Amino acid sequence: MNDTEKIVPELTKRKRRGPFMEVLYRLAKSPLAMFGLAIIALLVFCAIFAEVIAPYSPIKQDLMHMFETPSAEHWLGTDEFGRDILSRLIYGARVSLQVGFIAVGIALVTGGMLGAVSGYYSGWLDNSIMRVMDVLLSIPQTLLAIAIVAALGPSLMNLMIAVGISAVPTYARIVRGSVLSIRSMEFIEAARAVGSSDLRIILKHILPNSMAPIIVQSTLGVASAILNAAGLSFIGLGIQPPNPEWGAMLSGGRQYIRDYPHMTLYPGLAIMLTILALNFLGDGLRDALDPKLKR
Amino acid sequence: MADNNLMLDIRDLTIHYETDSGVVHAVEGLNLQLGRGESLGFVGETGAGKTTTALGIMRLIPNPPGKIKSGQILFDGEDLLKKSEAEMRRIRGAKIAMIFQDPMTSLNPVMTVDKQIAEMIRLHRNVSEHEALKQAGDMLELVGIRRERMHDYPHQFSGGMKQRVVIAIALACDPELLIADEPTTALDVTIQAQVLELMKKLKQQFSASMILITHDLGIVADICDKVAIMYAGRVVEYGDKRSLYANPLHPYTIGLFRSVPDIDEDVDELPVIPGLMPDPMDLPTGCAFHPRCSMAEECCSRERPEMKELEPGHFVACPVRARMLGQA
Amino acid sequence: MLRYILRRVLFLIPVLLGVAFCVFTLLYLTPGDPARMVLGDLATDEAIKEFRDKEGLNDPFLVQFGNYVYKAVVHGDIGRSYSTKRPVMTEILTAFPYTLKLSAFAMIIAILIGIPCGIISAIKQYSWFDTITMIFAMIGLSMPVFWLGLLLILLFAVHLRWLPSSGFSTFKAMILPSAALAAQSISMVTRMTRSSMLEVIRADYIRTARSKGQKESIVIGVHALRNALIPVVTLCGLQFGHLLSGAILTESIFAVPGVGRLMVNAIMSRDYPMVQGGVLFVAITFSIVNLLVDLLYAYIDPRIKAELK
Fold it and tell me: How far apart are CA C195 and CA A287, in angstroms?
């Protein structure tokens, strides 16, 4: 227990807000989280309006302008086929965000269901689900994704499935953990006492109350999904050329690194900024959702 | 007041917590005295500043956000607030020891209890590790724990046993002053009685002075000689236990006593003091109690009341009561 | 304690069987005929039929899996590489020391830098050191290992010419790959140490230690640190898994002849037994490391040790 917490009584004067607004308010007070949110908003904008914003086609080759360093015409230069790097980055945002969100969606739905069922029903069902998760967890995530893509064959869809599946155990564990801790609380007993069905209890009471850790983990999960996907593309297991993808662009620029480092610099920077933004947002969300943890 | 018998003399102590949302006036101009061999009951509601005062005496206020703004804490005539950190370390444990509220969390979970007691002994006595561990075993026996259990970890003990260990640590170096911060609040009622009995016995055996922080007037009646009533960072009434219990003078103290159920009287509803403890970030002017006080007069919101000796050895910070007793 | 170790080791067996099953199933479902892979496109249908009979490829799925496990356990045979025709086990055992060395180096770097930085950050919370450390940790966390690797090569190998950009035979050659791989783990360990330490230094027993008159250095270094490190130990175990899979990317950037590069090449040439073997091997290593971490955990946390008695 904390001294100052005991001594300083609850601030009674703080204005009453709804819980949702309260979280947003606290989030807005964190400059890093806002920075993250701004970057992500920018990326989403780029992804949606890529056709409008991008100055060039992302796949059109221009052999007259190969390996150009940044200039007024090509802000971030061109690659070995004379393609505009900025345009490829803008289109690449589309791929990365898609992979990140869909993979996390797959992981969240599958893992969340498994975890909720596992935590709620304990017993043999819980046991068998968690043993399977143990098996999956004993394969490092990136490696599991690699193995799955290697088996399914490289494509955007398979990439998302692989990255998604490899993250399932993480979500299953988190959801199971929070379900277990909430299940034993009095208000669940009360709901059961008035005759609510299991499904109703899970959906109406347990899931909303275990939202906080899930939201935080999902935000950070999008980051690691994008990172994983870029890694897979980097070793040739993701998006196939000539489609623009940040990891693949890095991989393509790699052999020219000595003479044309700009080809590897910008895609890497794009990946890093995206991940950084998501991590900042995730951290900010964690503090905003659970102010007790903030230090 | 050059009283040689005074062990502790706190003058005008002010401690603030400076937080993002404002300054918390935890202790505001507190005065308190304690004679040698006396035990003082330090009574007040949660948030009145009792623990902060205790930590202030130990100079263990977490900083930031806590800060001792002004005042003096004279211990054996020397101001603790002027001591260096190294000097304070020689006083902590050796001369002033503290028992904390929650025994469940007060012991280091990864250290055996004998080592935790021996640590105290090694710090203040010039003995070998072996000797310190032996003395630690003696201390455990003294507080009623079998010697065989000295190599156990805290989690292997029950709450009451852990508090005994904490007491053993506090008394290990024979301190002159023992500060016990609600030592029994976290325990079951039956265990509370045992631990209090133990403290009473050991206090006599070690002839230490004691400050017992509590909000339980019954415990004070059982153990202490003197009582100080604290409200919103200040002592509002201070005196001999007998005279204070027989004749509580401050309106707040009167309210406190009224809210304790009496077994002989059958009342439907206990009288409560109207209103809530003031927000320590925004204390009322003058007497902090005046908004809740039934006897408050206009002057109460203006002037901060001084402590006045209304009966021999019985001090009260309330000008209204003083006037009523003809001592204005 | 011994019984606990035994139980944990026994528990490892079903997990590893599960891993083998997953990996085997993945390969089984992979399109393409292994016989054709081994014998090449020019092989006659007859030769292929003969190979399928000999290798038991026509057996039911579970029989094939049983055979795979039997051969792996009894003979240490986990198949033959399609491309080099050598036993997968031999190939992996040659490459594995590199991967292990790389991951272990990265882990050591992460611990040596991460723990002290985390401690200082926690006790000097909100200081400039804390702020800078936390920003760096966040950047390190967000930095893709393959990009960091390339940047390091660009700076230290291409521009400054201080260190070689590939290989793993000399100490100098080991610096860049280990540093690139370690970056994320350093950040994780720093952040975890800091938050764990922050929680612990507010604990009541730290106040008790101070109230004894103990020196601040010992309060932090002995009382707080031992408690704060308990969750960090778990994290380090998990990080080792990340390092092993991160090694796959790092090895292919720095041309380290480890299991990772072996696997990437195998994936490219659709050499599935090799991929299978690689995944299995890394999973086993990871499981063993986690077992060791759990044992260490039980050793440093008496609350867990007591449960085992």
Answer: 13
Residue range C20-43, pLDDT digits in tens = 888 888 878 777 777 777 777 777
Q: Where are any strands of DSSP class E within chain B?
A: 6-19, 22-35, 39-43, 66-75, 78-79, 96-99, 177-181, 209-214, 226-231, 234-240, 308-311, 314-316
pLDDT for the residue A1:
37
Question: pLDDT tens across B144-153, in order?
Answer: 888 888 888 9
State both tokens at A28: 């807005």
ipTM comes to 0.84
DSSP state of A202: I
Tell me the two tokens of residue A218: 């999902």
The total of other beta-carbon atoms located within 10 Å of residue C163's CB is 17
Higher pLDDT, C256 or A179: C256
Range of the domain at B12: 3-95+175-324
Kindly state the average pLDDT of the residues A184-213.
78
Q: Which residue has the tokens 């070689």?
A: C164
Of A119-133, B252-266, C113-127, C250-264, the poorest mean pLDDT is in: B252-266
Q: How confident is the model at residue A8 (pLDDT cuts 50, 70, 90)?
A: very low
Which are the contacts of A4, defined by CB distance < 8 A and separation ≥ 6? B17, B19, B62, B65, B66
Count of the separate structural domains present in chain B: 1
Question: Shortest CA distance to A286 belongs to which of C133, C191, C237?
Answer: C191
The model's pTM: 0.84
Chains in contact with A via at least 3 Cβ–Cβ pairs below 8 Å:
B, C
**pLDDT mean over C232-253:** 88
**CA separation, residue C174 to residues A1, B74, C102, C153, C251 (Å):** 46, 62, 8, 12, 11
Distance CA B58, CA B52 (A): 10
CA neighbor of B187 nearest in space, from B209, B157, B227: B157
Cα of C203 to nearest chain B Cα, Å = 7
- Please say whether the beta carbons of A279 and C141 come within 8 A: yes
pLDDT value, residue C291 = 87
CATH number attached to the domain at C91-308: 1.10.3720.10
The b/e string for A212-236 (b: 16+ C-beta within 10 A; e otherwise) is: bbbbbbbbbbbbbbbbbbbbbbbbb
Domain annotation covers residue B127:
no
* Strands in chain C per DSSP E: none
* Closest C-alpha to A151, from C30, C277, C24, C28: C30
Superfamily per CATH, domain A19-293:
MetI-like (1.10.3720.10)
Using 50, 70 and 90 to split pLDDT, how confident is the model at A291? low
Q: Where are the domains of chain C?
A: 18-75, 91-308
Q: What is the mean pLDDT of residues A147-166?
A: 88
Cβ separation of A272 and C246 shorter than 8 Å?
A: no
Residue C207, min C-alpha distance to chain B (Å): 8
Nearest to B76 by CA among B61, B62, B90, B55: B90
Q: Which chains touch C (3 or more CB pairs under 8 A)?
A: A, B
Decide the pairing of beta strands B314-316 and B308-311.
antiparallel
Which of A2, A146, A280 would best serve as a mutation to test chain C binding (most C beta carbons within 10 A)? A146
CATH of the domain at B293: 3.40.50.300
More confident: B293 or C180: C180
- Looking at residue A149, its pLDDT comes to 87
Whether B32 maps to a domain, the answer reads: yes
The answer, yes or no, to whether residue B2 has pLDDT greater than 70, is no
Considering the domain boundaries, does residue B142 fall inside one?
Answer: no
Mean pLDDT across the stretch A166-176? 90
Question: Domain locations in chain A?
Answer: 19-293
Is the CB of residue B125 less than 8 Å away from at least one CB of chain C?
Answer: no
Best residue in B119, B124, B169, B174 to probe C by mutation, most C CBs within 10 Å?
B119
Strand order across the B234-240 sheet: B96-99, B177-181, B209-214, B39-43, B226-231, B234-240, B314-316, B308-311
